[in-house]
Design brief:
heterodimer; A: alpha/beta; D-Maltodextrin-Binding Protein, domain 2; 2 domains; seven-stranded mixed beta sheet; 9 helices; B: alpha+beta; nine-stranded mixed beta sheet; three-stranded antiparallel beta sheet; 16 helices
Chain lengths: 235, 372
């Protein structure tokens, strides 16, 4: 990885907004092989550009296989065993907002806080002989936040998709998921706990704390960070 | 001495106390530790999935698989039994210098009288194993997870508050959160439903009126129970001042083991908590026996009221032995009482008292190395 390696999201709104942002800092992205290609170049930057999923980008930054990348803070924080030691967010980009929240059925009138959830979980275990199920894609974030709030009366169920439906389908009773407006949660009969916002996430331009920079990669880095601080004046 | 030599020395100490040597299953269904101790233990658990996708775990200690085997044995009828082991356990490292796998040398006793003598003898045995390995304890931290519940019971509070406080004691900052929690009033329609002749039916009507579906495995009856607890807390206006002061004072107790019984008794007396006398009597008797069996503990052993509350399946006397050159989170020996463990593992089918203790030769090797 002697050349600077930078990853941008490969599809969807996140990709479009990232392209707009790169153009805005004077380094527009050009995809090689048309819309379906998975490599690209960034104007004015000696770098290998990879088009990856947001999850792959977060993982690559954490493992040190990428120098820079645009991905969600939710993924970075969840996939990293040690956020402080694995990556640094250089710029929050203001798009792709998503709150990672703890949500319970609205019908649980007795549960408004994490402390209430722990109380309900203890009573549940007595009544059912098992722990309350919490469905999520965010295993690490959930575990960390629940521990911080001293909530231990639960079991994690890894969710592959449509987490918000887990209580209705009976695979879990509580969920940890992302939400922007809360409308999906509401439509599924769920409510966010008062102290249930784990992370206010948005898309971020981040660098790996583990990747090594060769002299040429360091030179490209200087170009990029220069453009970044330039961008601050423009916006 | 090498690691293996220390294992042999410690093992001889435990085996001299009697008992059947065991080396139970290495692999457990992950449900056993996770249902027993909650998701919090996952951070230290070596988990993998089998070919059908079921989560399995490498044994995180010997207590669990030994207790599991004992629970199965007890289905044939109650009888007391002692087990000893020098066997591998597996945990995800908490510190950079922690190993993934290590040997625990120890002993488990099930079904014997749970009294102060049994606690003191177990403590003395573990202490002897540490000393036999040539390690001098720097400090011994002790606790008693039965004291706080005894104080709560003696306060004569409503049952819901009592349950809430006992549970909160096990959480970091939990008791303070309960004590400080501002009562949140219930909505008028929910309160009216709760006060109705048939609260569940009335609550179902509230759900329908609000267009709220009932999803998840909690039933209306459980939600009503939770609401009753909330209402009771609101009506009680939180905790009476006396109870509050007593619990906060108890939380602060941190002294030498030799002084602890007098301190706790004075505290109970000052707050008129005669109901805690039995637990405090047992505590005093145990402390006395410990200091008689292990005179050095007069200098090295301390008592902390909050100690051990995060040790999930322990429910009585608990202790850890610390030595030079290691972090406070890396004791060279530890042990305690878990009278509810067998019942918990068997789903209430069988029950038996339980107590056990282990030493960590891998850590003692490091202590001996830093010393020389």
């Amino acid at each position: 990885m002697s050349r600077l390696t930078i990853a941008v999201p490969s599809k969807g709104r996140l990709k479009e907004q990232t392209e707009a942002w790169l153009a805005g800092i004077g380094h527009p992205l050009r995809q090689i092989g048309g819309e379906r290609g998975y490599t690209a170049e960034i104007a004015g930057l000696d770098a290998e550009v990879r088009l990856l999923s947001a999850r792959e980008i977060a993982q690559g930054l954490i493992e040190g296989n990428l120098h820079f990348g645009v991905t969600g803070e939710d993924l970075l924080n969840d996939l990293s065993p040690d956020p402080a030691g694995d990556f640094r967010v250089l710029k929050r980009l203001g798009f792709g907002p998503a709150d990672v929240v703890v949500a319970v059925p609205q019908a649980w009138f007795d549960v408004d806080t994490m402390a209430d959830l722990e109380a309900a979980g203890a009573a549940f275990r007595k009544a059912h002989g098992r722990r309350l199920r919490v469905a999520t894609k965010y295993l690490r974030l959930t575990r960390r936040y629940f521990a911080q709030k001293s909530v231990g009366e639960y079991r994690l169920v890894e969710s592959a998709g449509a987490t918000e439906a887990a209580p209705a389908t009976g695979t879990a009773d509580v969920i940890v998921d992302i939400t922007t407006t809360g409308a999906t949660l509401k439509a599924n009969g769920l409510k966010i706990l008062r102290d249930g916002v784990i992370l206010k996430s948005e898309a971020a331009f981040a660098t790996s704390a583990r990747a090594q920079f060769s002299p040429s990669a360091a030179a490209a880095r200087a170009v990029l960070t220069g453009a970044l601080s330039q961008g601050d004046h423009d916006f | 001495m090498t690691h293996d030599a220390l294992v042999a020395v410690a093992r001889a100490v435990f085996e001299a106390a009697g008992g059947t040597p065991v080396d139970p299953d290495y692999v457990l269904p992950a449900d056993i530790p996770l249902e027993l101790s909650g998701e919090a233990v996952r951070a230290r658990l070596c988990v993998f999935t089998d070919n059908r996708g079921a989560e399995m775990a490498m044994r995180p200690d010997l207590t669990l698989p030994v207790a599991q085997r004992e629970a199965a044995r007890l289905e044939a009828g109650p009888s007391a039994k002692t087990y000893t082991y020098a066997a591998r356990a597996f945990r995800l490292p908490a510190a950079a210098d922690d190993p993934f796998e290590f040997t625990q040398v120890g002993l488990e006793r099930f079904g014997y009288a749970a009294d102060p003598s049994a606690d003191a003898e177990l403590f003395a045995l573990v202490h002897r194993a540490v000393e036999a390995c040539g390690v001098q304890p720097k400090a011994i931290v002790t606790g008693d997870l039965a004291i706080f519940p005894a104080f709560i019971d003696a306060l004569g509070l409503p049952a819901v508050t009592t349950d809430l406080l006992k549970r909160a004691f096990r959480q970091e900052g939990g008791v303070r959160a309960v004590l400080d929690a501002a009562s949140r009033p219930l909505d008028a329609d929910i309160l009216a439903a709760l006060n109705a002749a048939e609260p569940e039916t009335a609550l179902a009507a509230v759900l329908a009126a609000r267009d709220v579906p009932l999803v998840g495995a909690r039933s209306l009856a459980e939600i009503v129970e939770g609401l009753r607890a909330r209402r009771a807390a609101i009506e009680a206006g939180g905790l009476p001042d006396g109870a509050r002061t007593a619990l906060l004072a108890l939380r602060e107790v941190d002294c030498s083991l030799a002084e602890a019984a007098d301190k706790l008794a004075a505290l109970a007396k000052a707050h008129g908590l005669a109901g805690a006398d039995a637990a405090l009597g047992a505590f005093a008797s145990r402390s006395e026996k410990i200091l008689a069996l292990v005179p050095g503990a007069r200098r090295s052993a301390e008592f902390r009221a909050g100690f051990g509350r995060r040790f999930t399946y322990y429910d009585g006397f608990v202790f850890e032995v610390l030595a030079d050159g290691l972090l406070p989170a890396q004791p060279v020996a530890a042990g305690g009482r878990y009278d509810g463990l067998i019942a918990g593992l068997s789903g209430g089918k069988v029950s038996a008292t339980g107590i056990g203790g282990v030493v960590r030769p891998d850590r003692m090797v490091r202590v001996r190395r830093t010393r020389t």
